[in-house]
Amino acid sequence: xxxxxxxxxxxxxxxxxxxxxxxxxxxxxxxxxxxxxxxxxxxxxxxxxxxxxxxxxxxxxxxxxxxxxxxxxxxxxxxxxxxxxxxxxxxxxxxxxxxxxxxxxxxxxxxxxxxxxxxxxxxxxxxxxxxxxxxxxxxxxxxxxxxxxxxxxxxxxxxxxxxxxxxxxxxxxxxxxxxxxxxxxxxxxxxxxxxxxxxxxxxxxxxxxxxxxxxxxxxxxxxxxxxxxxxxxxxxxxxxxxxxxxxxxxxxxxxxxxxxxxxxxxxxxxxxxxxxxxxxxxxxxxxxxxxxxxxxxxxxxxxxxxxxxxxxxxxxxxxxxxxxxxxxxxxxxxxxxxxxxxxxxxxxxxxxxxxxxxxxxxxxxxxxxxxxxxxxxxxxxxxxxxxxxxxxxxxxxxxxxxxxxxxxxxxxxxxxxxxxxxxxxxxxxxxxxxxxxxxxxxxxxxxxxxxxxxxxxxxxxxxxxxxxxxxxxxxxxxxxxxxxxxxxxxx
Length: 491
Known about the structure:
By secondary structure, the chain is of the alpha+beta class.
């Protein structure tokens, strides 16, 4: 009886059913698209942060960059008399320098002991971010000194006339300054920090037995641009290192956190930073305690900068940040407004239908229908209308998501953090003479909007909810009708 009456009423009131279903469908389709795009933006943001944070890293600790001291000349090479090999009026020079970048500050490694002793810390490791700069080339030999130069270029006697001429070596100079980033890390703790966010593409990674040895693992993109391979060698700070492996980013970024990875103790010794670190990476014992652990570490290390993944997410900039803001604000509010409008339309049309059916409901009550049965009948009709709209909305929403994925818009993003120092050096280092290493990870990702069962379930839930709201209000109004009203209507 219930099913037969329900089917007949829906068929007889096709116009009302169509309008309510279309309104519900548009609202649910928009909710599906917004939720899927939001999930895609979050995945893209995670790809940017993955270059800054390692997998399994919850907190990063660093020190703010210190102001340069008076009289300091960072980024200069110093050549004294007798430096290089002189021949035919030309001096051939070559010098490498391994040092911390001006964008980071090295701090005492004992802070790592403080971190590991803190309750709630599951694992922690320290790293030392460095830049290796190499000057090589030919300069004209000058009387009273080895060679002249400007702008921080080689030359211990700055009173001499700068070299002039072209790069042909005839009365001029020909030189090149290349740099690449180096990250010293504890080879026994690669499961936390930058190397936990990479995949091995050739050779092997660093192991605990590599401590104190001159071995290096290279970013595969940098190795290709510098024509280096596993089994070869690379000069770091004037010392030859054997390349034992190549790694690649496991995220959307084409590069990893550094161009070269070497054992921490070796990096500290070569750079003159014995007992120093630039970053500490921490894994919390419980994901739910990350914020409280970060607060505890800030108290224990008052001069340090303690950042969680949520902190870094707020620093993401570029078109990715714009998309995230758009989805979070406009998209969410638009979905809520359209959904509320669809519910309101369903309620109004249901109430309007009940009003037109005064005679019908009065008669039904006169022949013995209870208020509960009438409410159930009206609610059942509304739920079916909502489900029809839900099915249509799911189809339209999936088509919308498919269009987004086929268009595959690209988003650019960058996350600024001291932990990211060294990312993004170009071929051969790609940085100008004396330039500071950038602390921003630049990433371009393709937006892909995933569809999950949770989103489909949400759509069905909204469809049922909309039908129940409309049906409950309309049914309540119908249940208040009295049989006498039907008799007056007939008369």
